[in-house]
Amino acid sequence: xxxxxxxxxxxxxxxxxxxxxxxxxxxxxxxxxxxxxxxxxxxxxxxxxxxxxxxxxxxxxxxxxxxxxxxxxxxxxxxxxxxxxxxxxxxxxxxxxxxxxxxxxxxxxxxxxxxxxxxxxxxxxxxxxxxxxxxxxxxxxxxxxxxxxxxxxxxxxxxxxxxxxxxxxxxxxxxxxxxxxxxxxxxxxxxxxxxxxxxxx
Length: 201
Ligand SMILES: Nc1nc2c(ncn2[C@@H]2O[C@H](COP(=O)(O)OP(=O)(O)OP(=O)(O)O)[C@@H](O)[C@H]2O)c(=O)[nH]1
Ligand SMILES: [Mg+2]
Description:
single chain; alpha/beta; 7 strands; binds guanosine-5'-triphosphate; binds magnesium ion
């Protein structure tokens, strides 16, 4: 049976570490460059428009927490929190603002007990930059699993997909099979399967 999302809703936004509320569910953080498709990814995973997708990059300055509940088999349910993080590398923000955002992200990743994994989104047409590699390194240092998901796959011809995904994987020093992809019309089930495996560890 395919994984089915039964309920998904915004629970709270946190502009600072102290504003992050207690909540009992395991958390999966969605992180990546501004405009990479984090909010779209969250909506696609939940099959609902719950996160705001903006044509205005850099508009998310908070950690936004979403409760996601569903059915993973006839008999088993699941509940997790997906955390939409502010995008990094947005050039139009001031250095002070960018530093604030990255401090918030780093301290959340370092200090939050129930974080189970990071989903690091990477445009399928780009190889990772310094910021993406810094997130991968931070996760390794903190012992947090970092799953790379290549975004906007639908914007490229099918004949190019494997070449692009191999290049993205290589940029992270990974194998093609280590990374997953998303885009319009790309099934979300393999990503859900991976997320639920990571939550169970
Ligand atoms: N073709 C295509 N476009 C996408 C996809 N995902 C996102 N986009 C477009 O990319 C732009 C940014 O999408 P968002 O989901 O808002 O990106 P974000 O990473 O949340 O951006 P910030 O919150 O500003 O960091 C929007 O114009 C989306 O429509 C995708 O899978 N395919
Ligand atoms: Mg967003």
